[in-house]
Amino acid sequence: MKKQVTLQQEFIKGVWDSNPVLKQLLGLCPVLAVTVSAINGFAMGLAATFVMFMASLIVSTIRKTIPPQVRIASFIVIIATFVTIVDLVMKAKFPDLSKALGPFIPLIVVNCMILGRQEAFASKNKPGRAIVDALGMGAGFTIALVILGGIREILGSREFFGLQVLPDQFEPWLIMILPAGAFLTLGLMLGVVNMYTDRKKRMEHESIIAHYKRVGREELIEELEVK
Amino acid sequence: MNKVAQMLLVLTSIGILAGGLLAMVSEWANPLIAANQKAATEAAIFRVQPEGKNYEPVQNAGFEVYKVMDEQNSDLGFALVYEGNGFSGKIRMIAGLSDDLEKIIAIEILDQIETPGLGTKIVEEPFTNQFLQLETNPNVAWVKGVEPSKPNEIQTITGATISAKAVVEILNNGISRLKKLRDDGGLQ
Description:
The complex is a heterodimer. Chain A is mainly α.
């Protein structure tokens, strides 16, 4: 029996419960490389979201036509097509942004987050559900990148989205714009997220135990049976 | 057999559709990309030759160099695009030169991937302004830790000596190639 999952839960799943960056740790190469500023993270997030949206839509629409033996090859061709489109459009319309993101846009092709969603979700679900999943994952990816980029930009160059937020007296921490800063910041972010999840889980356990102590064994079993 | 046929058919059709779509997008994007690049080059030329109003590329030079003219279409000098190795990758720069190639009018760094915060200072004005009106005969030279005393000297950047030296070297290489081209009569 498949559990009934609402579309809303499907979306929240990508943003929080299995956030591609913070929980699944997927696609970390662009995450670490481009996040020297919030705007870079935002652009990278949007580009990946668009590619994932289009790829999920198409893969899920033709999921019954693709023979299982060539599914990975088909996914890659579909993903690569949309990545190239994004790359060309950015070069044509946003040359500065395209220069800043450099080789990382073409590298979205091999981002395991996108391929992972096609294999794990889009190829097994209806188009409507698949695009909600893609949008959720994309939103989670973008949010994580903007936070990471924002922290690095504020501490590394005193700015947030290009606006100065810290006074001139604040000496920028160079390490935050260097690759090491990406690892340190991401590590601390993961630590905070894990701490929060652990605490939540512990509180749930404690409330169950407290409930058990209050009502006793028999009634708890009855309660569960009713459920 | 049937399965093989289906595999071939599906992958081929995906490939054909993808190719067709990409052809259409690139048809639309390529002129825009070319225009962007041209605009970027043009803007850079007029930044290193502020009085320039017009330019034309020097043909058959073997490297990128532009002849820059003012309003009356009389020669102002040249804009030389040259690249070489920096500290962690290629540095590409443009330099505005006087008509006799004896003076640098201004320089600008176009592309670089130097260390953020240290090597990237070669892009900033305190460094590039040192090249304003710098003499190129003898070659541009650098000094470290002291104020430049000769008209062909610049001071390197603390913490990024290699990047600063690389800029000087690229500049010297480019200018000597341009001078050789002039002596061979390639600039007429």
